Amino acid sequence: MMGMNNGKKFMSEINVTPLVDVMLVLLIIFMVTAPMMIEGVAVDLPQTTAKSVKTSEDPLILTVTKEGGIFLERTEIKPEDLENKIRSVMKYRRDNEILLKGDKDALHGFVVQVMASIKRAGVEKLGIVTEPED
After folding, report:
1. What pTM does this model have?
2. CATH number of the structural domain spanning residue 118
């Protein structure tokens, strides 16, 4: 057998260069697509110095726009259907929690009405999303 290989030994090391190349490409893809995966509707959030709260699962996000639109994740909901829609969604969730993203220019009274509907629907934890002050 030695004569067939002309005295050359087999290389016993694993070449990891292709693996590193693939991993770098995947890293770049995830870095580019991660900012696009943010859920919800774009609103101008109020700023505050409050600290963030940790949750055990991805919370359900309810958005109130300055025009008076209500969105559950990305689905628009009529104000009169809000309470029933939240009840039906909460049946299938472990945590009974909603995060409310209200545009800073939305009418305060309307946001309070939405909060009351959320509480009437049986939601135990209601958080308000803000942006940190500069």
Report:
1. 0.58
2. 3.30.420.270
Read off the pLDDT of residues 59-92 as tens digits, 9 standing for 90 and up.
788 899 989 899 988 889 998 999 999 988 888 8
pLDDT in tens, 90-125: 888 877 888 888 888 888 899 999 999 999 998 888
Asked if the structure places residue 24 within a domain, the reply is no
Q: Give me the half-sphere count of Cα atoms (radius 13 Å) on the Cβ side of residue 122.
A: 11
Using alpha carbons, list the distances in angstroms from residue 41 to 38, 63, 81, 86, 116: 9, 7, 19, 17, 21
Domain with 105, as residue range(s), is 47-132
Instruction: Look at residue 57 and tell me whether its pLDDT is greater than 70.
Output: no
The total number of structural domains in the chain stands at: 1
Residues 6 or more apart in contact with residue 115 via CB below 8 angstroms: 100, 126
Alpha-carbon Rg for the chain in angstroms: 26
